[in-house]
């Protein structure tokens, strides 16, 4: 599907089954944080929208004195109509500066490009006026207890750690072009919550509880304005009972077009222990085996998407506290002194490592400082991290949309 910038988006049905781009907004007029909650960034994950609607209705009915504003947003409206993960391309894999620049300049090639442009039209006025906390509600194709994901920057931790569910680190670094990753690089807060299986009614409940707890953690709500707060915390805690408090992604199995059909072996669930060499799927090439022992995460039991599965391993909360102290003290100036490591001559926030010496210990040091994005380059490994900047920025690629917004406002 190809859409021109001058053509209207593909038709969307009206009526009770259609979701508006902005589900709703709530503010009591008191100053405070701006929280944007997005549901259905994948069209086969509608539970988040139901939870957002519940919370907005609750706030309105009780006339809660919210600080700041809560805005509920629908992600991929076109895919949602079709109950598919996406129409042309995964909407949560295209948020790169290059793609955003192309879309902002008016080159709209796919249904998801149009979705991105419409989402940016909602986000841009908010991005101009200070930090925004983005909460992205997801669900999974496999059975799952709820868990959260975040890019490993300190400003994300208060929201993610406010929930009594596992926190998964590194997912935003091993996938390219996620919406939260892009917004986080602009200096905003971004936390995703995987609430459970797509069609499990409990997933809506888990999302509702998570959103209320994060609104309290963000300073939008006072605990006394959520009289059943303990029950919501207990609901989430029970869902994550027995799970590790924190995990980090160690491996991503990418499904390429030439690998299809990719078929997961049945009955894998999130956080299930798998052993190195265990057969977990089949594709056109044959059996797919796990490269290392760890925890199965996000096994693909749906036809779309290039993420076959991930492997994670537990991380101690002590490691989180140590990493917070190291970053607060800005001791990453010591990173170039690690064996086989040097600073990239052109990019101050990138480090080059000799793979012969960048073994587990060195990699773990990089992780402590938030350098979780690793890629091969000319027989070397390049480590980088999400922007730790405390002050949000508007990048150059958004300038065309900003001008259009200012002209429409003046008009």
UniProtKB/TrEMBL annotation:
Q: Which PANTHER family match?
A: ASPARTOACYLASE, SUCCINYLGLUTAMATE DESUCCINYLASE
Task: State the organism's lineage.
Answer: Bacteria, Pseudomonadati, Myxococcota, Polyangia, Nannocystales
Q: What InterPro entries does its record include?
A: AspA/AstE_fam, AstE_AspA_cat
Using the record's annotation, list all stretches that form the Succinylglutamate desuccinylase/Aspartoacylase catalytic domain. 31-159
**What keywords were assigned to this record?**
Hydrolase, Metal-binding, Zinc
- Which cofactors does the annotated protein need, by name? Zn(2+)
Q: Name one Pfam family in it.
A: AstE_AspA_cat
Q: What is this protein called?
A: Succinylglutamate desuccinylase/aspartoacylase family protein
The UniProt annotation puts the region (Disordered) at: 1-26
Keyword Metal-binding (UniProt): yes
């Amino acid at each position: 599907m190809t859409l021109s910038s001058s053509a209207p988006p593909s038709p969307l049905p009206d009526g009770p089954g259609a979701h508006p781009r902005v589900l709703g907004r709530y503010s009591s007029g008191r100053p405070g944080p701006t929280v944007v909650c997005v549901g259905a960034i994948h069209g086969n994950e509608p539970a988040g929208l139901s939870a957002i609607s519940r919370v907005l209705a609750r706030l309105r009915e009780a006339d809660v004195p919210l600080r700041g504003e809560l805005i509920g947003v629908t992600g991929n409206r076109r895919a949602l109509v079709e109950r598919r993960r996406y129409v042309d391309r995964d909407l949560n894999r295209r948020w790169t500066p290059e793609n955003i620049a192309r879309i902002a300049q008016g080159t709209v090639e796919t249904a998801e490009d149009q979705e991105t442009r419409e989402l940016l039209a909602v986000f841009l006025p908010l991005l101009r006026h200070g930090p925004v906390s983005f909460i992205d509600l997801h669900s999974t194709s496999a059975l799952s207890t709820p868990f959260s994901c975040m890019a490993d920057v300190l400003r994300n931790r208060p929201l993610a750690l406010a929930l009594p569910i596992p926190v998964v680190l590194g997912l935003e670094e091993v996938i390219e072009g996620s919406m939260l990753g892009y917004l986080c690089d602009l200096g905003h807060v971004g936390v995703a919550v995987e609430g459970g299986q797509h069609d499990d009614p409990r997933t809506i409940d888990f999302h509702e509880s998570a959103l209320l707890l994060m609104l309290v953690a963000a300073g939008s709500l006072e605990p006394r304005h959520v009289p059943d707060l303990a029950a919501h915390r207990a609901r989430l805690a029970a869902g994550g009972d027995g799970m590790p408090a924190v995990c980090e992604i160690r491996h991503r199995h990418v499904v390429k077009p030439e690998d299809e059909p990719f078929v997961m072996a049945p009955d894998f669930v999130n956080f299930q222990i798998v052993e190195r060499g265990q057969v977990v799927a089949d594709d056109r090439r044959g059996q797919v085996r796990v490269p290392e022992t760890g925890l199965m995460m996000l096994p693909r039991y749906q036809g779309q998407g290039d993420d076959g599965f991930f492997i994670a391993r537990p991380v101690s909360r002590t490691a989180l506290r140590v990493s917070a102290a190291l970053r607060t003290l800005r001791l990453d100036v010591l990173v170039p002194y690690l064996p086989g490591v040097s600073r990239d001559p052109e990019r101050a926030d990138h480090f080059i490592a000799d793979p012969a010496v960048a073994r587990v210990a060195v990699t773990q040091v990089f992780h402590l400082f938030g350098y979780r994005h690793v890629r091969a380059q000319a027989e070397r490994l390049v480590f980088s991290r999400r922007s730790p900047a405390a002050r949000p920025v508007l990048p150059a690629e958004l300038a065309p949309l900003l001008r259009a917004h200012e002209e429409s406002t003046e008009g």
